[in-house]
Design brief:
- The complex is a heterodimer of chains A (about 110) and B (about 280).
- Chain A has about 110 residues and is of the alpha/beta class.
- Chain A contains three helices and five strands; from the N terminus they run E-E-E-H-E-H-E-H.
- Chain A has a single domain, classed as Dinitrogenase iron-molybdenum cofactor biosynthesis domain (Nucleotidyltransferase, domain 5, 2-Layer Sandwich).
- In chain A, strands 3-2-1-4-5 form a five-stranded mixed β-sheet, with helices on both faces.
- In chain A, helix 2 links the parallel strand 4 and strand 5.
- The termini of chain A are close together.
- Chain B is about 35% helix and about 30% strand.
- Chain B has two domains: about 220 residues, 3-Layer(aba) Sandwich (Rossmann fold), CATH 3.40.50; about 60 residues, Alpha-Beta Plaits.
- Chain B is built from ten helices and eleven strands.
- The chains are: A alpha/beta (about 110), B alpha/beta (about 280).
């Protein structure tokens, strides 16, 4: 299962970013292996329509779960149509904090997800 | 000749200047006054008479899902994020679409065609023998003002003199209005906000290559910072309107200060002459 966490920098110790479409980075984490990959969000400073464009990036990377603070209505429609689960996280801290928070609250086996 | 009236800051008196200027010059010249503040048009409040209407439509894409093979090229092309192609469907956000037509051109299957969708209307009236009023009206909830402004401008091209009343701000609607004009009147007020936004509006006019001059409205006599700015940036101060309750009360009744006062008629004629000078039009 692939988890995406919105971030202000390209690594696990970067601050979690509350905004989705305008997040500078998406950190993609493989729940099974723990491997992660940082994707720079080229739409972060775009004029408009950044939510759906950012959602398309997540779809292309076969993301299953998004952990972010605020997902706009357009992006929400795209993500939900693509079957991506949206988790609201607003406790601040780093990407690693957000990931650990999620794993604590969702300890179930990832099989079949 | 085309004159735009812009301001940056809202509520400085664009409509007062545009309406009185049109009122005065249309006594001798064939004039069209265009309300380009399509999100909140108000010039019709000062000029009566029946209006005829024309719809403003924009093309939006329609997808043929039988022909479409979900290649996603259209979504990749759309820089506005209006299209998302999923395996089982296409999501289209009309609010984000700028009607550029690119998706239709790029589709290798020819699965996209365009359909017109109404976003507003143009009202045209003739308040006096030499004056035509064209008002652009954006429908409630529609996000894109510029196609309505463009249409209003197209409806005004037959007069020898056209005065465009712009929206406040310095964004796309103002650029669309000021672009292609021969002169731009920047209406400001002697407050820090007025000066701050005058600076931005002057920059827009400069970028578009439209010569600009300034009208200081609601002046309390302490306009030094504004006049200094104008001197530095070679913007002529073409008119100063005093802070006066009587002017406000005339305006608030839907009347025009130049309609009955020879003094104001003279002053707005003077403003028009200065606009001619700005535009370099020979008399």
């Amino acid at each position: 299962m692939k988890i995406c966490i919105t971030a202000q920098g390209p690594h696990l110790e970067a601050h979690h970013e509350e905004r989705f479409g305008r997040a500078p980075y998406f950190i993609l984490i493989d729940r099974e292996t723990g491997a992660f990959e940082a994707i720079e969000n080229s739409f972060a400073s775009g004029a408009g329509g950044v939510g759906p464009k950012a959602a398309q990036v997540l779809i292309a990377h076969k993301t299953n779960v998004l952990i972010s603070g605020a997902v706009g209505e357009n992006a929400r429609q795209v993500l939900s149509a693509a079957g991506i689960t949206m988790i609201t996280y607003r406790a601040g801290g780093t990407v690693r904090d957000a990931l650990e928070w999620y794993l604590r609250n969702n300890p179930g086996t990832p099989e079949g997800q | 000749m085309k004159i735009a009236v812009a301001s940056g800051k809202g509520g400085t008196g664009k409509t007062l200047v545009a309406a009185n200027l049109a009122e005065v010059v249309s006594r001798t010249l064939d004039t069209t006054l265009v309300d380009c503040d399509v999100e909140e048009p108000n010039l019709h409040l000062f000029f009566g008479g029946p209006a005829t209407s024309a719809e403003v439509c924009v093309p939006v894409p329609v997808f043929d899902l039988e022909v479409c093979d979900r290649c996603g090229k259209c979504a990749g092309f759309c820089r506005y994020g209006a299209i998302t192609v999923l395996q089982d469907r296409i999501l289209f956000f009309s609010d984000l679409c700028h009607s550029c037509g690119g998706c239709m051109l790029i589709c290798p299957k020819g699965a996209i065609r365009e359909e017109p969708v109404r976003i507003g209307q143009i009202n045209i009236s003739h308040p006096s023998s030499l004056l035509t009023l064209v008002s652009g009206i954006l429908d409630e909830g529609q996000p894109h003002a510029t196609p309505v402004i463009r249409s209003a401008k197209e409806h005004s091209m037959s007069s020898c003199l056209v005065i465009f009343d712009a929206a406040p701000g310095t964004a796309c609607p103002v650029v669309e209005t000021v672009e292609g004009c021969d002169a731009c009147i920047l209406v400001t007020e002697s407050t820090p906000f007025g000066l701050h936004d005058l600076r931005l509006a002057a920059e827009v006019a400069d970028c578009l290559g439209v010569p600009a001059g300034v009208v200081i409205n609601r002046s309390d006599g302490r306009d030094r910072k504004t006049t200094e700015f104008c001197t530095t940036h070679e913007l002529p101060v073409m008119m100063t309107i005093p802070f006066d309750r009587k002017i406000a009360s005339v305006q608030n009744r839907g009347e025009l200060i130049s309609r009955r006062s020879p003094e104001w008629q003279g002053r707005f004629s003077g403003l028009f002459e200065q606009c001619r000078d700005l535009a370099g039009v020979r008399r």
